[in-house]
Amino acid sequence: MPRSSPRPRAVPINGKPPLGNSLTIAPGVLLLRERFSPLQQQALLADVLERLKLAPLYRPVMPGTGKPFSVEESSFGALGWVADKAGYRYQPTHPVTGKPWPAIPPALLALWREINDGPAPESCLVNFYGAGAKMGLHQDRDEKDTSAAVIGISLGDTALFRIGGTARSGKTVSVSLASGDVIVFGGPSRLAYHGIDRIRPGTSRLVPGGGRISLTLRRVTV
Question: Domain 34-218 carries which CATH code?
Answer without folding.
Answer: 2.60.120.590
